[in-house]
Amino acid sequence: MRLKDETKREAILKATMVLINTYGLAHTSMAKIAKEARVSPATIYIYFDNKDHLLVSLYIEVKREMNRAILDSLDEDIEIHEAFRLMWENLYAYYLAYPDHFVFAEQFCNAPIVDSIQKDAVEDFFTPFRQLIDRGQKEGVLKNAPMDLLVAFAFHPLTQLAKQHVKEGIAMDDDDLESAFSCAWDAVAIL
Amino acid sequence: MRLKDETKREAILKATMVLINTYGLAHTSMAKIAKEARVSPATIYIYFDNKDHLLVSLYIEVKREMNRAILDSLDEDIEIHEAFRLMWENLYAYYLAYPDHFVFAEQFCNAPIVDSIQKDAVEDFFTPFRQLIDRGQKEGVLKNAPMDLLVAFAFHPLTQLAKQHVKEGIAMDDDDLESAFSCAWDAVAIL
Amino acid sequence: MRLKDETKREAILKATMVLINTYGLAHTSMAKIAKEARVSPATIYIYFDNKDHLLVSLYIEVKREMNRAILDSLDEDIEIHEAFRLMWENLYAYYLAYPDHFVFAEQFCNAPIVDSIQKDAVEDFFTPFRQLIDRGQKEGVLKNAPMDLLVAFAFHPLTQLAKQHVKEGIAMDDDDLESAFSCAWDAVAIL
Amino acid sequence: MRLKDETKREAILKATMVLINTYGLAHTSMAKIAKEARVSPATIYIYFDNKDHLLVSLYIEVKREMNRAILDSLDEDIEIHEAFRLMWENLYAYYLAYPDHFVFAEQFCNAPIVDSIQKDAVEDFFTPFRQLIDRGQKEGVLKNAPMDLLVAFAFHPLTQLAKQHVKEGIAMDDDDLESAFSCAWDAVAIL
DNA sequence: GATGAATGAGCGTTCATTCAT
DNA sequence: AATGAATGAACGCTCATTCAT
Predict the structure, then answer these.
(1) Interface test with A, best of B22, B23, B51, B110 (most A CBs within 10 A)
(2) How many CA atoms lie within 13 A of B107 on its CB side?
(3) How many CB atoms lie within 10 A of CB D187?
């Protein structure tokens, strides 16, 4: 009996992401994924129950890796502003290092299929943000607005900028990045 | 005869948006659109060259209407902060009034198909924003950051909030809206 | 707009029966049916909802035609023995004329798919037999056994003989047929 | 080791019969059989060359067991009528005891796959009937009709009644059974 | 002997599009 | 202009069978 081949699973996931980013969710078939991953269509079903399960698994894994990347080097008792900046830079670095990850995630999370995921499978992605913001509000450093609102201003524009960066080749130099961080901080901080 | 035709065209576009918002780009076929619009599949091809053309047409029309809505009551020589606020409120009002429009737009603009649109067909959507920001920078009211960066902070979070509002039923009251506007303004303004 | 083509429907049904009789229910695919009927696989779905519906439709039509054939020339006030003989001969003539019909029917009615048919869609096939037997019992000509029992003896052996006739080339001459009818009559009649 | 093997072979055969009776020849795959028998798909191929071989083996074994059951307690020099009755009752008892056996056999023997069996592998099933009938004709007790004809009348209706019994829950009490036997006897005997 | 992984071919069905009226 | 019929290609998935352990 052969053992399940982890590289095969990875190849399938990678192929799926590449094709979805290139041709879109609507034009990515199991046959094309199989060909791109150099396996038989039937093999995909050894690793994933069905197409939806494959897509959702990919999304969850991508989100999980993003999460891990953002928390890198983050210390519990770090100062708010510093922590905020670290996460911001981690996220941007991740976007640059794995542009296909968030291009995929953005397409996926705006399609109805995302609704089939039970919230808490991905929710923890934003947990560190939320904890940080919570602490910042208690310390009187951050604005006293609803959590979702602050998260939206703190990190969502960065995603948008990264998307432009990747898709349209609009580069951001260090100055731009500095400006962007200032905007984000001014948006959420009590000045 | 002319009037009847326009009705049919609108029915097709509406049906397309409904199905895409409900089932996604990947699961919206011409046959289903035809059935939802109560026309024959062949009839769709009288009004649109092919499926891509139909989708792109829908996207452009939606973007055009958004644009029109945002500019509503906007005077050329209005003060920056006031203009900014007016557009913000117009956009939010539009999101509430036509939630399916921007849910569709968000799904579409994150799919690769959007790349097939020549930029200027939709670009003008942000033109008034850009002109406003340009003026604000010259008057020394707005930060001197790249245009795209300021746009991203000024309006993108609102889209994100509206999405949560629509998809997850997370309501925003007047206070929240006021807070959100403050965040947006603080993000882009020289304080 | 083209009109639905009755000959196309018939070609699909005929092709289905031929393939099922030749290769069996288990090896008759929609693609093969389409090829045999010289239509596109998709065309089959214009005339039948799905494969099951196609098979069931074929079975019901075959049973209906059998029914019609058996009742041929049957008069209401004919004498029991005479009526019995007429139906018997009609059935045998039908078997000889349309051997593929009952070969198909025998395969189909022994497969679980037959259970998906609501009884009364086919039930009427045996109705004239039943009425005849009912009358025969009242007149004291036929044995006073349960209906199903008499039907089983009166007509089922004939099906079995016809099957051998068709499948194994075991011919029955006029004498054999006469003998067979005698057996059937002796089985059910009060002597 | 030997014992364990036989168990596995039996499990595979039993699973095959159960699935075919439940879902039909057309919807019984090797994978499903393996799962039902709690073995690996590959294991089936240790005991049977291929799917056809498995099915045919099952059919032959079922027929062989039927044969054995019918001959139970049958004495060579028993009187015709008595022997006839004994076999009849044996067969009926077998149908009641192993309904799945003959439900399977009926489905299988009406499918074209049965043609791939060399006749003599199963033929002997009816041998005792045939010998009995042969003797009966010589003794002038049974009608002088072709063998197949008498067999068809003597035993085939019973199969049909048993099928109704099993599939539709139409019960037969002792009186019915007595009636049925009378019909069968009257059909074939010289009265 | 026994297994689960692996496969290319084929499954039932739907696709985007065109045809004929 | 408008339709439902018609299609070959493609869809997601399962098939019978073999491989590697």
Answers:
(1) B110
(2) 27
(3) 26
Q: How far apart are CA B54 and CA B47, in angstroms?
A: 8
Start-to-end Cα distance in chain C: 65
Interatomic distance A107 CA / F16 C1' (Å): 38
Which of C156, C183, C191 shows the shortest C-beta gap to D145? C183
Report residue C174 as tokens.
Answer: 């006029």
**A185, A81 in Cβ contact below 8 A?**
yes
Model pTM score: 0.93
Give the phi and the psi of residue C142 in degrees, each rounded to 5: -105, 155
What token pair was written down for A179? 């400006």
Q: Give the 3-state secondary structure of residue D175.
A: helix
DSSP characters over chain B: -HHHHHHHHHHHHHHHHHHHHHH-GGG--HHHHHHHTTS-HHHHHHH-SSHHHHHHHHHHHHHHHHHHHHTTT--TTS-HHHHHHHHHHHHHHHHHH-HHHHHHHHHHHTSGGGGGS-THHHHTTSHHHHHHHHHHHHTT-B--S-HHHHHHHHHHHHHHHHHHHHHH-----HHHHHHHHHHHHHHHB--
Q: What is the sign, positive or negative, of the torsion defined by CA atoms of A185, A120, A61, A36?
A: negative
Nucleotides of E under 7 A from a protein CB: 1-21
- Reading phi first (left if > 0) and then psi (alpha if -120 to 50, else beta), residue D172 is in beta
Query: In order of start, what are the domains of chain D with their CATH numbers?
Result: 1-48 (1.10.10.60), 60-188 (1.10.357.10)
User: Distance (Å, rounded) from C-alpha D191 to C-alpha D185?
Assistant: 9
Whose CA is closest to A188, among C99, B157, C117?
B157
The pLDDT tens digits of the residues spanning B90-140 come to: 999 999 899 999 999 999 999 999 999 987 777 666 777 778 888 899 999
Strand E–CB A146 distance below 7 A? no
- Rounded distance in angstroms from the CA atom of residue D185 to the C1' atom of nucleotide F16: 47
Measure CA to C1' and name the residue nearest E15.
B29
Determine the Cα–Cα distance for residues B166 and B172; give it in Å rounded to an integer: 11
How far is residue C58's CA from residue A70's CA, in Å, rounded to a whole number? 63
pLDDT at C124 over 70: no
In angstroms, what CA-CA distances link A109 with A52, A66, A115, D103?
13, 14, 8, 52
Q: What share of chain D is helix, strand, coil (3-state, %, to 5)?
A: 75, 0, 20
Residue A127 to residue B116: CA distance in whole angstroms: 37
**What CA–CA distance (Å, rounded) separates D178 from D184?**
10
C32 strand E contact, CB < 7 Å: yes
> How does DSSP classify residue A114?
G
The predicted structure's pLDDT at residue B166: 84
A176 touches strand E (CB under 7 A): no
Q: State the pLDDT at residue A120.
A: 76
CA D118 from centre of chain: 17
- From the Cβ of C179, is strand E under 7 Å away? no
- Please provide the average confidence, as pLDDT, over all residues in chain C: 91
pLDDT at residue B2, rounded to an integer: 45
CA-nearest residue of chain D to C22?
A: D112
